Structures are given as C-alpha cells and as structure tokens.
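Holo prediction — flavin-adenine dinucleotide.
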Amino acid sequence: MNLNTVVEVKRPASADEITQWRDGYAWLAGGTWLFSEPQWTTDTLIDLDQLRWPALKASPGGLEIAATCRIAELYRFDGPAEWTAAPLLRQCCDAFLASFKIWNAGTVGGNICMSLPAGPMISLTAALEATYTLWPRDAPPCEVLAAEFVTGNNANVLRPGELLRKVHLPASALRKRAAFRQASLTKLGRSAALLIGTSDPARHDLLLTITAATPCPVQLRFDEIPSGEALRQAIDARLPADGYFADVHGSAAYKRHLTYHFAEQIRVELS
Ligand SMILES: Cc1cc2nc3c(=O)[nH]c(=O)nc-3n(C[C@H](O)[C@H](O)[C@H](O)COP(=O)(O)OP(=O)(O)OC[C@H]3O[C@@H](n4cnc5c(N)ncnc54)[C@H](O)[C@@H]3O)c2cc1C
C-alpha cells in the first residue's frame, strides 16, 4: 500500500551516514510489513538495500547471515554435509504465512526485528544458538544472544535507531541433530506452535526451543534426553497455563496442547 505519511526515502551507502536518529525514522528492509499497513508515525524510510552486505558467508566457524539476506537466499543455501541441522533453514522458511509470496522481498533481519511470536527466523536462530550483532547509532557494535533478543509480542531489546547487522550461527550448533515441528490452524497459515529440538550427538543432551505458542522464545536445556514426564514438568515449570500467546492463530489452550504434543515427539525423535 502507499504510505502517504512518508515524505523522504534515504538510501545511504553506509549506515554511518545516519548519524542523528529522530522519531519518524524507520529502517526499511524488504518492506513486506512496513508496506502492509499505514505507518502513521513514520515520515522517513532509510533503505538498507544499498548497504550491499553479503547475504551469506559460510566458514568453519559457522554461518554468517546478513540482516538484509532475503528469505529466498537463505532457502537456497546448501551447507556442508556435516551441518546436520541445516535442513532447519528451509523448514523455517516454509513456516512463513503465505511462504513463497514474501520470500523474495522479506529479509531475515526484518523478520527478527518485527519480533512477532510466529517469526520463523527467530525460531531458527534461537534454536541454533545464534548471536546477533547490533549497531547502535551512538555506541560501538554489541552482541546479544538470539534467545534473549525478543522480549514480547512485537517487542525486543533494540533501542531507537539501533540496527541489526548480522546473525551468526555457530558450527557447533549446525552440527547437532535436529527435530522440527510446526502447526498452523490453516494451510500456510501463521504458526500456532513451532518447536525445535537439537541434540549434540556426542553428549546426547537436548535443547528445546518453543516459539509461536509463546510471546517470545522459551528454551529448555537438559544435560541428557529427559523422560516424557520430566520434559512435561520442565515445560510447566517455565510456562504456566497463562504464559501462552492467544490470538486468532490459536487459543492459549490449543497452543499449550501443541507444545506438549510436539515436545514429546521431538524427545522421542532425538532419543
Ligand atoms: C503475506 C504476509 C505473510 C507474513 N507472514 C509472516 C509470518 O508468518 N511470520 C512473521 O513473523 N511475519 C510475517 N509477516 C510479516 C513480515 O512480512 C515478516 O515478518 C517479514 O519477515 C519482515 O521482513 P521485511 O524485511 O519485509 O521487514 P520490513 O517490513 O522492511 O521491516 C519490518 C520492521 O523491522 C524493522 N527493521 C527491518 N530490518 C531491520 C534491521 N536490520 N535492523 C533494525 N530494524 C529493522 C523495520 O524498521 C520495521 O519496523 C507476513 C507479512 C505478509 C505481508
């Protein structure tokens, strides 16, 4: 849609050109959300496209994903054979509502910064123990764990003008075994629950990441694969019945049911 409050679009070649941040500014990535509804408080868009950050860089240390990497580019990425968790990349791209329609415009960073419960790039990067690099406007770059970035529905730790620059997925997490479960009330609908389990093949541990059913990611770590009963107790200890996210994509009770169901499936698959 037309954004008739916007009077200027800046296209900097470097983020450093934006020295002063003020109310009314917004970073523009793929624009799939920004152009999907009126932006009454925004008068200036700052397009990230001209920054030309390389989308994906694989190295022995892991995978670096630029915030501006398109979902379609991530979908096409083929990792080395030893990155056994790499299928999660495509599974999480497929978890977008309307999936392929927004793949070519929507970005990994835009999805993370939207910080919606059903943000599949949040699920992916939290489950793979990612670190995000943030560029504040008035301070040196800093890092934050993916699992600690989102603080609620459409809320995160970003301060005004702070830019998400990149995501680092460590090779140690990419080499884990992984199990993925996701459900939507409608085909290609927004996720009601998206759970990912990973396990280090040498340690037989379990990291369970619960997303979409909750306002922000919830992670449970176990030194060894727990029993079904222990897993359910651990979920209840972290997530009371009113800790689930109720919206048109599912009631809290439904999402709680899916969480128990998928967590148990993941536990069995990784056992
Ligand atoms: C049909 C359709 C289906 C959708 N399905 C889903 C879904 O299933 N799950 C979901 O979570 N969302 C969904 N969305 C919402 C949105 O399109 C996605 O979250 C998308 O990934 C946003 O990415 P973008 O690059 O288009 O972000 P933009 O729309 O460009 O930006 C989104 C927000 O993030 C900020 N931002 C973007 N990049 C950065 C950065 N690097 N640093 C700091 N701030 C930044 C922008 O200022 C803006 O506030 C959907 C939208 C549509 C239209």
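READOUT: Helices lie at 71-76, 87-93, 100-103, 108-114, 120-127, 171-174, 228-238, 252-270.
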